[in-house]
Protein 1
Amino acid sequence: MNNLVVLPIVLPIMTGIILIFFRNQIGLQRWISFISLLFFIGLAANMVQLVYVDGIQTLYLGGWLPPFGIVLVADMFASLLVLTTAIVALSCLWFSFRSIGIEREKHYYYPFFHFLIAGVSGSFLTGDIFNLFVFFEVMLISSYVLIVLGATKIQLRETLKYLLVNIVSSALFVASVAFLYAITGTLNMADLSVRVAEVGQTGLLNVVALLFLIVFGLKAGLFLYFWLPGSYSAPPTPVAALFAGLLTKVGIYAIFRTFTLIFYHQPGITHEIMAWMAAATMILGVIGAIAFSDIRQVLAFNVVAGVGFIIFGLAAFTSASFQGAIFYLIHDMLVKALLFLLGGAVIGIAGTSNLKQMGGLIKYHPSLGWMFFIAGLALAGVPPLSGFIGKLLLVQGGLTAEFYWITGISLATSLLILYSIIKVFMHAFWGETKLSPKEEKGSEKGLLAPCAVLVFLSFALGLGADYLYPYIEVAAETLMDPSIYIQAVLKE
Amino acid sequence: MEILMSVVVGILFMVGTYLILTKSLLRIILGTGIISHGVHLLLLTMAGLKTGAPPLLGENAALYTDPLPQALILTAIVISFGVTGFFFVLAYRAYKELGTDDMDKLRGNDHE
């Protein structure tokens, strides 16, 4: 029992509610949001350390013991993701101050920002499958509002599609929960794990497992990513960065949770399918990333390819590949947000997202250019940066699991990701300078500081991997051995 | 009873899927409504339809119906109600701004 576990959910919700009352005091809204997120980071870091020292932290809401009440569980995997969420959210918030525009700020931008974060951290921390659905909805409803806020034509159009896809996948989620409840008679994840192990994961439970794979695959953009490129290129930059950093990752987390804790008995069926879905995701994502000459589309398809890597680590199901997947997931959240922020700054300056119409930005914007270059290298996994260790462990784990083909695909994908990002870099920053400072459509003033924080963290994650590694090891160990989680939740 | 309910839920899913695949936006929203009805009935059915008293302790009955799925359905209903409300307003706004409710005309890869 530890009351700290509920604070990452309560803090953003309370902040959001308070901000509703200060609709027209934008300065005040910004200060409250910023300070609240700083607190949040401190809180999450504290939680990571606590879990590292004392083991998994649980909180029985209302004092009801599981499986009867809702339980919040902070294991190392969830705590690390909450911390990363907090950091990504802070940099996106900081970026919003200069770029989101006063009209959006007046129409409850910051409250919805905080509600979204509450939904994300709630999804990470919950130990109950129906509660996971509710937190998904908290997150999704805020994301609907954030994506459409401003109501330009493209936003309206893409929100309609995003909304429809998510309504259908939520309906499927509830249907899967209904089937699972009919078979097991419980909703608590630890209890589910025990009962599924008791009855054996036979035909019916395999079907439910695959249904969950479809549901979370829709949310995570695992193979079922058709909605993603359009939706992620519609909203304004900081919102798109927040989505790229957090939303698909919640789906990935849910896949990890269900397939390491509950449905891990038949890897020959579920994890084999997952592996090929991951391979297809990598290939199709990277084809999209190469094909387009529009910055937004290139970056959105890179999100898709990244999902493939992480799920491949889960499908390989070795301890090295788990460590790699967790490391890569954390790195991916930071670097995808960074790339979307930098891409947004480039689009803001050039006034277009078409690569063919820009060029030579490096002359007047050297720091923006080199930061974009570093972010691209980090994404591809060049050694001193953060992407390398995750990919190394993933490849190692993939080879141990004898997934030779898929490991080969993942390496080839890395190369093509590098190509797609360098293509953006070369077209946007090199070549003849097409815009003099006077003709530029926007400025980068105040936008580079949050990006610099993320660049620094990418370096720190790469160079300081030794310090982070013990935490990752603990997280992977908990995922490999569900009994640790079950004991922590259902101890008498 | 469960068999009958399963068939009904199946029909609701079928109708909902058909409506979602049509062109008109309003039909799509109706389709999502019907699918969420199907899902809620499915929750009720899958928890078992044994006869028993309503889950009120004042009834002093020997057997009660399962209260958990009823709470889940109640939660799911308000969530889908909120989302549907949002969807309708969004569709109204999109119709006013874009001048069409035909999903084919809303496709487009161009940005603006």
Protein 2
Amino acid sequence: MDLDPSAPPLRLHVPEPTGRPGHATDFSYLHLSPAGAVRRPAIDVTPASTADLAFTLVRVLDDEGQAVGPWAPPEDLPLLRRGLRAMMKTRAFDARMLIAQRQKKISFYMQCLGEEAIACAHALAIAPGDMCFPTYRQQGLLLARDDVAMAEMICQLMSNPRDPMKGRQLPVMYSYQRAGFFSISGNLATQTIQAVGWAMASAIKGDTRIASAWIGDGATAESDFHTALTFAHVYRAPVILNVVNNQWAISTFQAIAGGESTTFAARGVGSGIASLRVDGNDFLAVLAASRWAAERARANLGPTLIEWLTYRGGAHSTADDPSRYRPADDWQHYPLGDPITRLKQHLVQQGAWSDDEHRQVQAELDAEVAAALKEAEQYGGTLIDGHVPPLETMFEGVYKDMPAHLVEQLRQAGKEA
Amino acid sequence: MTMIQALRSAMDVMLERDPDVVIYGQDVGYFGGVFRCTEGLQARYGKHRVFDAPISEGGIVGSAIGMAAYGLRPVVEVQFADYFYPASDQIVSEAARLRYRSAGDFTAPITIRMPCGGGIYGGQTHSQSPEALFTHVCGLRTVMPSNPYDAKGLLIASIENDDPVIFLEPKRLYNGPFDGHHERPVVPWSQHALGEVPEGHYSVPLDSAALFLPGAAVTVLTYGTMVYVSEAAAAETGIDAEIIDLRCLWPLDLDSIVTSVKKTGRCVIVHEATRTSGFGAELAALVQEHCFYHLEAPIERVTGWDTPYPHALEWAYFPGPARVAAALRRATEN
């Protein structure tokens, strides 16, 4: 067949966000569902039949703060109070660490402003012994459960001699096996397939523990995300695959990651994995969906992919200035709001919270974080005053036992230092 | 045993001894591997211990790291070393660094088996020797056996080792030793002393070299198929070469190397891999650093050319006995 000389020239499509600095975002691309509108299938649902759930949005809290619809979890006000406190604690921690970074007590920091509900509710939905494979923006998993001392986390941020990672890792790259929190890597997406492998191991050993994998919207474009979906599906691994869609990968809008006219939840269905798309700023929805997926995995029914719809309220990191690529007031206009405000509204309506209590808890948490910071500084000092781990720790742990060439290099380094 | 049988025996022994050992990879399960290295293991130990994997090197290695973090001891296969590249990120950024970055909170005691090397008309993607890409990575152990006895002992040691091990298997040596004389019939391992392999458990220590052939005139540092090529070259030149089979490329047995070169005063390095920034460069640098005042001639390197591995020009590329012989002569001339 000959080419038609009158055919229009082909054009490369490069997605753009609707909002740029000085121009408001049109959030209609999110395709939101009203609270309570999306069905809740049985946990033994076939993956193919979750196709509609991958294109709608599971929500529990409505605009008035009422818990509505089939996903509303059984009323458990003490747990929700704990959840609100966990989110407030995470935000207070982030806020104080941002200041500490500006004061040069720590070299780098990444906050999770606006995304607190996802990690905090998820942490309360899974069981002790389950293993999370987080990214650098799930500090809520650690802060929600109160089983890791805040001062110890801050020592990691300070890379001081009390840093459990011995100053080897950038700040926020925590590792807490005892708290079910896998070592964070700087290389994106690698942890998703590792989580699937961990889950496969649990199944191989006939264990009852499950894995929970975490990834952001941007990192879904990495090959390991695809790999994780394939292996999770093939081996029916007991894993929850969490995609935190906060709309932004540093400066890149989620459409450039492949989110235009589709959803990240849809990838799961395409891979034969039961998938949900959930309001990530709705603590009750996160709790309910996480429990559903955990129950499904624990019952040997296979993996679940959950796309958590949220918004990255803060800068990507302390090295980033979002005003250069998105509207400064974008978060204020994000239609799913602020997870803390929304859960607070719900609890106030239930008579289980008040403005006074909120202020009081906020003050307590600020004091707790300040005390932990002080404790960490007293323990080991900070980067700014030259408190770093001893030289030999640089050579230890590359291998289980230090091989001869590293013994020699340690000797040389000691002589030259 | 052939090298294939020896490797299979090592995996059999470890599956039997350690319930945390699992084996998987592409075509590894039911079919028993494209080289038969895992034949019968799935039937014996079940699909939960030995199984087939999707064609995804990154997925195979990445899932193995997750299994290791759980507490298993995975032994995974990449069908050809030429196909490890999609797993590079998991190997370099994850397996090699997990212990270090988590300060021992998590570790990756995995073994990654990869058939490597040329001399089989494998062309560009069935012949490569990528060992230098691993020896450069801190946190990895890189091992390459040259005979059935070592293959079994080193593989058992690798599986038992708590560090991640890249286990390179010269496929040219799977069925018998090969000295580069492609015009002659191949002798099977059943007619070679190193084909004698004990049935049960034994190991060959990692970071130990083997003195393959004692000699006094020149030290040959080599490994894999090139051990036999070097042996043939020594025999054909009549040069009293001392051939050291490194076995463990990194960490390596520096003492054996230094002792030998100080004795002979001359050194020839032989590997199949391409020359520039190949592992031979590290060996040459180590010899220079540790044996400088004992050297009586420049260090020679006989390697693959700095080209992709060709198909038609296999024997012009493969560093055969004639090329090694010429280097032995150059190194011992003065």
Protein 3
Amino acid sequence: MSEHKNDLIEYLLRLADNAMINGQRLCEWCGKAPALEEEMALMNVGLDLVGQARNWYEYAAELLNDGRDADQLAFRRDERAFRNLLLVEQPNGDYAVTTLKQFLFDAWHFHTLSALSHSSDARIAGIAAKGLKEVTYHLRRSSEWMERLGDGTEESHRRLAAAVDELWRFTHELQEADALEQRLADAGLAADAEAVAAAWRSTVAQVFNSATLSVPAPASYFYLSGKRGLHTEHLGILLAEMQFLQRAYPDATW
Amino acid sequence: MYAQLVETGVKRVKTLEEMSTEERAFQERIDAEIKIEPKNWMPDAYRQTLIRQISQHAHSEIVGMLPEGNWVTRAPTLKRKLQLMAKIQDEAGHGMYLYSAMETLGADRDEEIAKLHSGKAKYSSIFNYPTLNWADMGAVGWLVDGAAIVNQVILQRTSYGPYSRAMIRICKEESFHQRQGYEILLTMMRHGTQAQKDMVQDAINRLWWPALMMFGPSDADSPNSAQSMAWKIKRMSNDELRQRFIDQTVPQLEFLGCTAPDPDLKWNEERGHYDFGQINWQEFYDVLKGNGPCNHERIATRRKAIEDGAWVREAAVAHAAKRQQKQQAA
């Protein structure tokens, strides 16, 4: 494992940041959801994700062993150091945008954690297996909402189709494996990105079909890369809000 | 408290002799501490009073998510963020639980929510105060949920069965929130910097009096209390509950190392209670009438959520209908 330590830290941060930023976006829905049941569900999913982020950050902090803890990784890194997918940092938009964003991520997350629960690293396998139980629920929920909105009213279908037009370009990132992921996958530590991408495409095709949506052509190369810390302009503002207290009172204990 | 001013529409409590046979049988059941259940006969005024009280209580849970939602995106650590998210989730659940209890009385959830949005129905005055620093999350948990618990512990014995059972369930979670809130403040006072200690005292200064107002007008100005007490909807008077809250809260305040913004607060050996200063009742009635610091924002936010979400709810209904059609065709 030691030969892969730096890769592993980077990979754990990607997993952690994905869950953290998605959870943060869900927090923004508090008090604004279309129904009370959705208030509960959104906070429930967000709670699961922030909890998973904490688990990944803690493991990353142990491997880093540079005095930083999970909170410092979440609240003291700048946007160039964040490794989340561009998809999860996109603004919530209307409920169609939020639903689609969540579904596309949940499908990817589900297949990723399914693979990671067989990781040769017991710690990763454990965190993934625990998270997978939660993400199975997330995926079921967002798939059901995809169907309700896609095959609901004319307006809901139109809004969901518009959301696809807006967000599909970011799915390129869910489809590409970089060298780091390949090295870790070869070592049996990380998910095989090609296999995850294929499973993701199949889930998306199935749910889009039930939602009476057509699957767009595969998204083409996009100039930014969340994995390399090259984000959209949305992340900086999100972090300014999320990290404010830790930045303003660096000596504080909360 | 989450329902601090509930009209009973009754000017004078009837004696047993003045009651009809049905009314008398109902009152005797109440006096014998037998719970009233949805299918039992009940006076219309009892039903309407409970609908008003339980809906106010439910509305308070929902509007009460907003002052905390204001800080959930800025919570300072992963642990605090998770706690706050869990708490907000509980509150949405409490709201749903209370709306269900209210519906056993024949009221409609959407109609009651529409009354809230039009300003006809009330919610607890406390949620019209802004949350201005992180310590407010601790102070809301400790003082606001603390006041709610004092009220709800008594309401566990309220005469209407579904309401009483809702309170038993909700109290367990509220107690947990209150301890977490206090722990937030204690951490800041024991291990925090001077700036954090100042935040705590500032939060207490701003929320102390509004928390005391949660128990409603003083007994002398509670014309509806006599009937609510006779029906055992209320089991203790506003002033009794307020005194109980102050007596149990002041030692916790001292343990924190903070002070109350009340120069008249002191232990009265003779009464065995804390004496405290005069509540600003003008402010209380202003806030209740809609002229508090955040009344406008709170209602505007809730109204917008429901209006913006209309197309989502319509889609869900349309999809359910399509699905049913398909199943019938198959």
